[in-house]
Amino acid sequence: MNTPTDITQLYNALFQIEAKLKSAGEYPIHKRLDFGGAFTDIYEFLVSKIDIKNKHILDAGCGVGFGSLLFAKNNAAKITGISVSDLEIESADRNKNKYHFDNVDFKVSNFENTESCNYDLIFCVESLKHSLDFDKDFNALLNGLKPNGKLVIVDDFFEGKITTAACEAFMDDWNLNFLFALSHFSGMPHKFTLEIEDLTHFMPKKSLFKINMQLLFFKLLKRKSMLKKLFKGGLLLDKLYAKKAMKYQLIIIAKQE
C-alpha cells in the first residue's frame, strides 16, 4: 500500500518532469484534450459549464494553480488551492504573484483536511484517484460543501470487468491504491444528487499498436528511474483507454439544502 510520502514524491516528480516540457503557467495535465478549438484545457471547459461567479471554491489538487487563477479571472469570490506537492504550491504562488489576486490562497494540504461546510464548489480534477483512503477523503469533501454546494470530479474511471496485468502495472507506476470506478459513489447519502457526463470523446484517439511499441521500448530499457516509471504509467493508461477499459468522466455531486 502507498503512503502519503509516496504520493508527494509522485507529484513532485511529475512537476519536475512537466516543468521542463510546458510553460510555467500551464496546468500540468497529462492528457491532450480536443474541444474542437473552443477550449485548451479541462478547467476552461468546466468554467463554461458551471457557474462560479461569487462562489467560494476549493481547488483540491490544484497543480501549479492554472485552474484556481482561472476561477479568479472569472469572478469567483475566494479560491483555495491545495496540493500535497510543495513544489507545485511554490510554483502556484509564483504564478499568483504575476496577477496580484488577493482572493486566491495556495497551501500544501490534502483532502482529509477539508474545512467543514465551507465551500460552494469543490473541484477535484484528476486528483481523487490518488486518494489513499477513498471513503475518508470523499466524505471529507462532501462534508466541506455548504448547502446547495457542488463537488465536481473529473478523472479516469475504470470500465473493465476485471483487472488485468496492465491495470496492476498502471496502479504500481502511478502509486494508486485502487482503480477509480463509478461504483465508488453507490453508497452516497440521500441528501446528495449525482450527475454524470462522459467526456471520453474529447480525448484524442491513440493507436494501440503504437502504444504497445512504446511500452516495448520501456520494457527493453533496463535502467530504473522515476521518469521511466511515470512515462510507462501514462502509456499503460493510454492502453486501457484504447481497449475501452477506461472512461474520462465528469461527476457533479450536489448537496441539497
TrEMBL record:
Sequence ranges assigned to domain Methyltransferase in this UniProt record: 53-155
Keywords attached to this entry: Methyltransferase, Transferase
E.C. number: 2.1.1.-
Protein's name according to its UniProt entry: Class I SAM-dependent methyltransferase
Xref: InterPro entries: Methyltranfer_dom (IPR025714), SAM-dependent_MTases_sf (IPR029063)
Transmembrane segments: none
Main enzyme class: transferase
Keyword Magnesium listed: no
Molecular function as annotated in GO: methyltransferase activity
GO biological process: methylation
A Pfam cross-reference name: Methyltransf_31
Highest taxon above the source species: Bacteria
